[in-house]
Amino acid sequence: MTDTYTRLVSKGVGRDVAKKLGLPQPALLRRYEPGQPLVNGPLLVVGSSTGADALATDLLAWDLDVRRHAVPREKLGGIVLVLDELEKPSDLEEPVLRAAPSLRDLAPNGRVVTVSREPGGTPAAAAARQGVDGLLRSLAKELRAGATGNGILLADGVGATAPGALGALRFFLSARSAFVDGQFVRVGSSDGKLPDDVDTPLAGKVAVVTGAARGIGAAIARTLHRDGATVVAVDIPAAGDHLAEVANEVRGTALQLDITRDNAGARIIDHAVGRHGRLDIVVHNAGITRDKLLVNMDHSRWSSVIDVNIAAQLRINDALLASEHFRSSPRIVSVASTSGIAGNRGQTNYAASKGGVMGMVRATAPLLARHGGSVNAVAPGFIETEMTARMPFAMREIARRLNSLQQGGRPQDVAEAIAFLASDAAGGISGEVLRVCGQNMVGA
Amino acid sequence: MSSAQPVILGEMPSLSKLYVNAAAAAARRRILGSHNSTALPLVSHEVRGVLADVGNLTAYQHLLGESASDILPAGFIHALAFPVAMSVMNRDDFPLPLLGMIHLRNVVEHRSPVRFTEPVDITAWTENLRAHRAGTQLDIVAEVRGPGEATVRWRGVSTYLAKGVFLPGIDKAAAAVQPAVFKAPDPTALWQLGVDAGRAYAAVSGDFNPIHLSVLSAKALGLRRSIAHGMYLASRALADVGAAKGEAFRWEVSFEAPVFLPAKVALDISTAQTEGAAWLRSDYVAWSPRSGRKHFSGSVTAL
Amino acid sequence: MSIDGQSVNGPEEPAVSRAASSAQAVRRAVVVGGNRIPFARTGGAYTKSSNQDMLTAALDGLIARFGLQDERIGEVAAGAVLKHSRDFNLTREAVLGSALSAETPAYDLQQACATGLETVLGLANKIKLGQIESAIAGGVDSASDAPIAVSEGLREILLDLSRAKSLPQRLQILARLRPKDLAPDAPNTGEPRTGLSMGEHQALTTAQWKITREAQDELAYNSHRNLAAAYDAGFFDDLLTPYRGLTRDSNLRADTSLDKLASLKPVFGRNLGSEATMTAGNSTPLTDGASTVLLASEEWADQHDLPKLATILDGEAAAVDFVHGKDGLLMAPALAVPRLLARNGLTLDDIDYFEIHEAFAGTVLSTLAAWEDEEFGRTRLGLEGAFGKVDRSRLNVNGSSLAAGHPFAATGGRIVASLAKMLHEKGAADGRPALGLVSICAAGGQGVVALLEAH
After folding, report:
1. Between chains, do C325 and B270 touch, taking CB under 8 Å as contact?
2. Any idea where the domains of chain A sit in the sequence?
């Protein structure tokens, strides 16, 4: 799946030539495989708050090589910058500059994660907290060789070692977040629960994935299955053959269903509960594009995109919210799109629907909260799929390189983010949109 | 049993030699003129201890659609006895030209089964020389018994016509009664007979009469194309009647228009049963689906 | 069998399930669900697909629908009418190629067009007897990938050659080879004993029962209309898995009309004397496809949290003497259904759904005509009068073979799965579980019929 260019400039003569010519040199990203070490080397935890100490202690319990002070020229797997007690902008300098020299020692595919508080409090505190945003996004753009920088925002009252914070930290440090760069995740509460077994965080869960026959949906089904979930793979009847292959591969069941049908929610609940005894996770992945400049847009292009991409999700969510079978820390994860954030020429209908997904997620979060539930969206950037493979060559090459990692992501990258948000550990994260875009220049 | 004088042949007559001989006799007659015999020879020919070839039997059964049982089909016994019958008609004192004779009718009484492992004695003679509106006809009778047995297991009477031959001393037959117009019923079967149907039957029956073998050999004998063996058609109809007929039955066939090969032949078989659903008889009739002309008809009845 | 005393289990009976009342000694066998691939007209989407390919695809769709990956099913039985000799173990090979446990046993069965239904009945009986807990019945056929045999002459030469011991012997055998022996021997659909094709046979029966062209065209029209409506309603969403780009039966003509059907020229029975009424529109085309049905004991279905759509109550096979013209080739169901219903104390009026396989429109209509015929009832069924009338509004309500096509051995599975779903959706009728009847005619003058009850 790695594109030819990336492979070419990653080693040997190709690498040297690319370097001399100043061509982009995308790295071969490290992707998650069960059993691999969380990070590629020791972890430096910078920060002097009690939160930093507590975090360092917890990280030690993960069998990680934790350093509170940098050892010169020692290659680091990651740097955790704990900034949870900033009072004013000048508080930033000490920890940031203390961590700075270590950036040089960051191993390929290294990780930088900031832990800070969401903007608020006094004007000075808010300025300091918001400063982390600009700092991290810029730092992420300075990182090379597959390294990424992401941040965790703690709501007031949420500790640095809340389940959501630790869950997000594990996600950002791990290879699961390979294509997530320059992003923040907000932990709004101390809800959630860390998994008994970090290799199977979804053990015992029953997950429904719509649009599971191909591409990103199929990758989501595989990833959820890998993480221990029983998967109900849903797609339109016409895609049933691919759907059956996916369902058989993930040892799940196939449900051929047009999600725009009125009873789709009931059918999904009946199938999951009837066949598998419960329903914990619903991933709204099914989506279509019918691109046209707005000036040329017609009813069928507009309405079909809106109906499939957001109206159907709303109807299914209504059924889920009304169902007594969706009450035990339920999770909804929707697939949005960077088009819905930054816009995209020719995709007014699509961007409206995906913007809608993000609005829906925010407004649904309080409705699920009373059952310990969460709802989030993942917004993929340029992901290498059958669809993008059909793009014209030049447009595809440009789209691929327009991000900090200088390459397209893989369906698995989107799936990893969804699997994280679907896990118990992410209970404190709700109403959020997580971008999986390699820090795309567009709409950052 | 005939009153004819028995002549015991030492071995089965060779049909091919008989055909050659018949051709020679025909040529001789053409040159020397008709010979003066006007009565049937008062002899019967007999061959004892005849054993069927099992490979040949199997090939016959496959070709005709009979079950490949160990019991000789009635039509197979006809073919087995045919050389003996031919040898009688091939005698110098036989009054009619053998070549060109037309098979009009055949009646078989199959009284008890013959297994291929049992040798049989075959006796054949001619009788009942009589007039036909188109010439002279006669019956050739063949009987099959177990070795040394008195009871007949199989008896066949074949009626042949020597067309255009009128012997002195035999009154001319009355003008033919106009046969009823044949109206074809809905068929129960449709046979597709290839050009090689004659050769295929010749291979299992041993009857290599040139009129059945190829267009050329048939043309040599004055026919526009080769024609199917009558006994092949009748035997297929018998096979189609199926197992219901049991082991003892009477099987009749009357031939009308010949079947020129290749051909499609439509067939209707209708079966009559007793009140208790036991098989009584099956009647069959075959015709050309193209022209509607009747080829043959007959029946199989319980004995 | 006489059908006297058919009121024994009349409508005044209490609302108990027949499965419970008539067969206390044995367990129930239930239909859990089914899966088939869309049926494709021969020479279409599945031209290059083998029977094994299609059966495996149908199995994998079933496995995906019911989560049977790595499951050891009690037994899988399927078959094909047109079968390569290399496919002697077709079903087992398909199982090995599927996501089922490799420890699932399988066998092949063949009863011409009744193959699929017969696998259902045979496996249901095994479940009822407690020999197995779960089973998959199925069937597949490809007229596109049909076997072509070598000529009889070449076959014998090859066989003799394999038995020859010396070079001279071999040369002698080879010398028998003639050019015509090299011509292949393609399969034909003619009945071996009559030489008549199935269509010609049906043409005779159609004429015998005086079925009009208009009536046949109307049945064909309804089949297309009903099937198209069922697709539009999503009826097949959980009965069918697309294959090779096909998402619907390729023979389906949703836009057909009586006028279009009336414009077609007759293709069967043109040389048989009577007026020819059978066209390509009111006869099934040669079709490729495969179907499967998941059967189980109630316990197994419960343990696996799987649905129980319908119970397989009973089945009956019949055959007719078509060789001697006593009955039409495809009329055996006309005898089988009265026997089946009599044994279960039922009449045609008790049946909520009739699934009569549309080999030809004439087949269905001749069967219905025979049942309505007093003389047929008296002489062939041993009744006082006519057997009865089928309520046409209950006949093939979601379309049948005229529209869907008819890959011979796959038709039984298609019908059983669809009927089980229909019965399950209907649930009860007149205070008792809904009843469905399947009737399938087959080559060789055979017919297999079955009775299903909503679970």
Report:
1. yes
2. 1-30, 35-187, 206-436
H or E stretch covering A256? strand A253-256
The verdict on domain B179-303 having CATH code 3.10.129.10 is yes
C65 contacts A245? CB cut-off 8 A: no
Q: Are the beta carbons of C234 and A255 separated by less than 8 Å?
A: no
Compute CA A352 distance to the chain's CA centroid, rounded to the nearest angstrom.
21
User: With respect to CATH, is domain A206-436 assigned 3.40.50.720?
Assistant: yes
Which residues 218-237 in chain C show a CB within 8 A of chain A?
Answer: 234, 236-237
Q: Do B188 and C325 touch (CB under 8 A)?
A: yes
Model confidence pLDDT, tens digit, residues B44-93: 999 999 999 999 999 999 999 888 889 999 999 999 999 999 999 888 88
Chain CA centroid to CA A19, Å: 31
Q: Which CATH superfamily is domain A35-187 in?
A: NAD(P)-binding Rossmann-like Domain (3.40.50.720)
- Give the 3-state DSSP-derived string for C198-218, with helices as H, strands as E and coil as C: HHHHHHHHHHHCCCCHHHHHH
List the one residue out of A93, A202, A78 whose CA is nearest residue A148.
Answer: A78
Cα(C255)–Cα(C283) distance, rounded to whole angstroms?
17
User: C189 CB near a chain B CB, below 8 Å?
Assistant: no
In sequence order, what are the beta bridge partners of B136? B131, B162
B68 Cα distance to chain centroid: 21
- What is the reported pTM? 0.83
* C67 chain-A contacts, CB cut-off 8 A: 247, 251-253, 275-276
C275-311: pLDDT as tens digits: 789 999 999 988 999 999 999 999 999 999 999 999 9
SS3 for C56?
helix
List, as ranges, residues 190-209 from C with C-beta within 8 Å of B.
Answer: 192-196, 200, 204, 207-208
Q: Is A350 a catalytic residue?
A: yes
For chain B, give every domain's residue range.
Answer: 1-177, 179-303
- Exactly one of A172, A302, A350, A420 is catalytic; name it: A350
Tell me, which fold does domain B1-177 have in CATH?
A: Thiol Ester Dehydrase; Chain A (3.10.129)
* B289 interaction partners in chain C (CB closer than 8 Å): 271-272
DSSP 8-state symbol, B276: T
Q: What is the pLDDT of residues A275-314, one digit of tens each?
A: 999 999 999 999 988 888 898 989 999 999 999 999 999 9
